[in-house]
Specification:
By secondary structure, the chain is of the alpha/beta class. It folds into two domains: 60 residues; 153 residues, Ribonuclease H-like superfamily/Ribonuclease H (Nucleotidyltransferase, domain 5). It has eleven helices and five strands; from the N terminus they run ααααααβββαβαβααα. It has a five-stranded mixed β-sheet. The longest helix is centred in the middle third of the chain and has 24 residues. The radius of gyration is 20 Å and the shape is globular.
Amino acid sequence: MGEARMELALATIRADIARGLSPAQMAHARAAELGVSTSAIYRWVEAGYGGMSNAEPGRKVGYRPRHHMPGTRPTAHGPGRSHAAFSELPEERRACACEMDTVMGRSCDTACVLTLFLRPCRFQLALTLPEKTSSAVAAALDSLETVLGQEGFRRLFGLVLTDNGTESSDTAALERSAAGGAARTRVYYCDVRQSQQKAGCERSHVEPGKLLPKGRGIAFDRLCGHDMACVM
């Protein structure tokens, strides 16, 4: 990239950051003008190009530093449920998976939000849970199965990738069909502390998180299904 074009690009990025735009928004909205990727903008800011720093985008310095553990630890649910086993599935099956997670609010809240990210259409569903337990998650899946029917549920949620939280620990309850008969889904688990293995779900938490900032006075206990529909 020539010097003049680089200076123009950096000036544009600085102005957009000042407006509160994210690197992803800049890369997409100004694709013809800048012609750079989201990761490139992050690298330029981190490297200090144009006098910028990581403090300017704001969101990056809003998180505590993550504690990185050496290597990866497999899930306690056994090798047949591990991310390694999930990775061995045919690519077309993995591309049709649903990524499942929960989002917490204030430390005093009992309720939480269950998120289900459908990889094929990049659609995320958010459901309120009365408590963060396996039985509450299973009940939410039961309600979806009742609405969709067994075949409809299997088509959308027949393969689930989730983390190792207590709310997803009862594999049998999550997999069994509310109507009886064959199991409605097959559940796999990410490696311990490797949430990026379900990156679609994690990225899709960003925008709802702006409306329901974690730990900042939004009472999850007061949320209802209509509230979550509006958020999504």
